[in-house]
Amino acid sequence: MAVTAVVGGHWGDEGKGKVVDVLAAEHDLVIRYNGGANAGHTIVDERGTFRLHLVPSGVLHPNVTCLIGPGVVVNPDVLIEELRTLEAQGVSTHNVLISTRAQLLFPHHVTLDVLEEQSRGKGQHGTTKQGIWPAYADKVSRTGVRVGDLLHEAHLVEQVRYQASRMSRLMTGAYGHEALDVEAVVAHCRRWREVLGARVVDSHPLVQRALRAGRRILLEGHLGVMRDLDWGIYPYVTSSTCLPGGAAAGAGVPAGKITRVVGVVKAYTTAVGAGPMPTELDDDMGARLRDLGQEFGTTTGRPRRCGWFDGVAARYAAEVAGFTELAIMKLDVLSGLDTVKICTAYRYRGDILEGMPDTPVLADVEPVYETLPGWRLPERVSSLESLPSAARQFVDRIAALTETPVTMVGVGRDREALARGAASGAGVWR
Catalytic: 13? Predict the structure, then answer.
């Protein structure tokens, strides 16, 4: 059975949660493969609105096993609160598991994140201040503590004491912050073990059993290609790999098993945080997109930067991530406009660039736009073929630019507000 990866095609916040939620109904195992609580996925169904940060977006399907994979940095305090909130909303979380190989994110990681961002002054990266990069830094420096360590008391204490003492030296020396109470950090871990211990599993045999049995596996990522550590707008990026290669490593699935890659974009472009965004609109149209699309960060509540659809970034993402199909979310937000625009290239010092330049150049480019006719969506759209002709023209143009067939189009907030259709072979659906 093929493994499916869901990957963001822009700067993050593309609507991946909705896509994963819908696809999860067709899968047996959903694995979150990267990031932490710094990004959120919002799902709306008949029971209400659910904002997820660490719990995989398949949790609303009780028969789907949801695994927080090895590539994730887990803030147990955030996870515990998220699980409690879901239960209070009537959602069973019995199907949520955590890999022993996932990394623990401590309160001192959050503190360090805040201190470092403050020290940058006007050059801040726009981090969510959730402690993501310090946790990944500890992982890479081999001073991290893994979720599985919670189950081994002596090893846990040794690892925590070393990390906390090392962190204290950094925080006192570089930032003038008070030292950590190491014993308090150890006590915190013990409380986490009491609440989460039963959910901690060795994910390798779990995933291998699923593969051997032909189970349907869905890999869920956070953020998007433009925030990828290697391929994004460095240094305004996240600290993990958002591509399918990262999905393979972060979930524990052989890369060759991933044969379906669903790229997700919005019908326009949004971003949270600093860094270049060529199609950003600092005008009434940008404000309209933000208001109609309710573009405020799920994690931080910050207003998202909004602009016209960036076809250059989407094509670049499709190429480096190997999209086999594309989902376009929030087409309804553009409904009612007389005309819409798509960026098809960048202009830099008089030259036309069709590829993705390095970050310093990207910060100085001008978007080259195509203008297309607008449309008004009917109250209900159930299939791609039932879209108005102008909306079909817009979708077809994106498919052609990215050379990727479009198979899903979001036409509203609810789970059911999704037009689907069969992909054709030439990068355009029919």
Answer: yes
